[in-house]
Amino acid sequence: MQCFPGLVLALSSLLGALALLQLSLHLRVPSRYGKHEERLVRPRGRLPARCAWFLQELPSFLVPALLLALRSPPRLEPLGCRLLCCLFCWHYFYRTFIYPFFTRGRPFPLQLLFFGMLFCIYNGFLQGYYLIYCAEYPNDWCTDIRFTSGLLLFLLGMGINIHSDLLLRQLRKPGEVTYKIPQGGLFTYVSGANYFGEIVEWFGFAIATWSLPAFAFAFFTLCCIGPRAYHHHRYYLKTFTDYPKSRKALIPFVF
Ligand SMILES: NC(=O)c1ccc[n+]([C@@H]2O[C@H](COP(=O)([O-])OP(=O)(O)OC[C@H]3O[C@@H](n4cnc5c(N)ncnc54)[C@H](OP(=O)(O)O)[C@@H]3O)[C@@H](O)[C@H]2O)c1
């Protein structure tokens, strides 16, 4: 395989367009899973949350890992390139092999799982293909301010995301499906603390890679889970009369 810059541009632009579509679809109506799932008389097909999250996220890990393994000769230089590819795989290793096995979430709709998987194949290919076949970085990219500040943001965002998902998980005993008011960590300031972490993480990744595909993905993440944080916030305000009034939806002290 070789690098086709036109392909990268086309796939990144399409990702940007998909982000805007997500935003327009979900600003008013939340994505129908978890606390926003419609309670239908005859529920559509659903899969246990563990299985669904594992299957959905697996391509995001496998596709770039396969691209990396299949590249001949293997790409070993520069170090910055290898590290960036590893960061992406690291996040999806967590999301595929760790997160699903601890979740206490409700069963997940099959239809959304199908679209989620398609998206993970698409994005896994775009990010992996760009980093493994196209990206060119100087040998000292690891000391560039964009790499170091982006990496710091990535790690900070990942830490917030994992910690917030842990706090949500601890709200339930095994087998419970009720909703409670999240407390502690960044939930003190926002209803969508896990989403805030994920958005910071992917913008950090975009800065560290300084690439169009990664910025398109960070934008997609913002448009996908930003509205979800807003809907979670409204849900909490409607459901719990004692919900902290100073808590914002997504960005501490701002929104
Ligand atoms: N990069 C992207 O575009 C993208 C897109 C989607 C998700 N994600 C990431 O994937 C992870 C999960 O996303 P999600 O949309 O499922 O998050 P979520 O709606 O906040 O739910 C996360 C987990 O916590 C449970 N939960 C949520 N609020 C709760 C409460 N008040 N009381 C008790 N349990 C509660 C949920 O159970 P239920 O399932 O029963 O509601 C679910 O198991 C997040 O870290 C998110 O950042 C990333």
Automatic annotation (TrEMBL):
<keyword id="KW-0256">Endoplasmic reticulum</keyword>
<dbReference type="InterPro" id="IPR016636">
    <property type="entry name" value="3-oxo-5-alpha-steroid_4-DH"/>
</dbReference>
<keyword id="KW-0472">Membrane</keyword>
<keyword id="KW-0221">Differentiation</keyword>
<keyword id="KW-0732">Signal</keyword>
<dbReference type="GO" id="GO:0006702">
    <property type="term" value="P:androgen biosynthetic process"/>
</dbReference>
<keyword id="KW-0443">Lipid metabolism</keyword>
<dbReference type="GO" id="GO:0030154">
    <property type="term" value="P:cell differentiation"/>
</dbReference>
<dbReference type="InterPro" id="IPR001104">
    <property type="entry name" value="3-oxo-5_a-steroid_4-DH_C"/>
</dbReference>
<keyword id="KW-0492">Microsome</keyword>
<feature type="transmembrane region" description="Helical">
    <location>
        <begin position="202"/>
        <end position="225"/>
    </location>
</feature>
<keyword id="KW-0560">Oxidoreductase</keyword>
<comment type="similarity">
    <text>Belongs to the steroid 5-alpha reductase family.</text>
</comment>
<feature type="signal peptide">
    <location>
        <begin position="1"/>
        <end position="19"/>
    </location>
</feature>
<keyword id="KW-1133">Transmembrane helix</keyword>
<dbReference type="InterPro" id="IPR039357">
    <property type="entry name" value="SRD5A/TECR"/>
</dbReference>
<keyword id="KW-0812">Transmembrane</keyword>
<dbReference type="Pfam" id="PF02544">
    <property type="entry name" value="Steroid_dh"/>
</dbReference>
<keyword id="KW-0521">NADP</keyword>
<feature type="transmembrane region" description="Helical">
    <location>
        <begin position="108"/>
        <end position="133"/>
    </location>
</feature>
<feature type="domain" description="3-oxo-5-alpha-steroid 4-dehydrogenase C-terminal">
    <location>
        <begin position="107"/>
        <end position="255"/>
    </location>
</feature>
<feature type="transmembrane region" description="Helical">
    <location>
        <begin position="145"/>
        <end position="164"/>
    </location>
</feature>
<comment type="function">
    <text>Converts testosterone (T) into 5-alpha-dihydrotestosterone (DHT) and progesterone or corticosterone into their corresponding 5-alpha-3-oxosteroids. It plays a central role in sexual differentiation and androgen physiology.</text>
</comment>
<dbReference type="GO" id="GO:0005789">
    <property type="term" value="C:endoplasmic reticulum membrane"/>
</dbReference>
<dbReference type="GO" id="GO:0047751">
    <property type="term" value="F:3-oxo-5-alpha-steroid 4-dehydrogenase (NADP+) activity"/>
</dbReference>
<dbReference type="GO" id="GO:0007548">
    <property type="term" value="P:sex differentiation"/>
</dbReference>
<protein>
    <recommendedName>
        <fullName>3-oxo-5alpha-steroid 4-dehydrogenase (NADP(+))</fullName>
        <ecNumber>1.3.1.22</ecNumber>
    </recommendedName>
</protein>
<keyword id="KW-0726">Sexual differentiation</keyword>
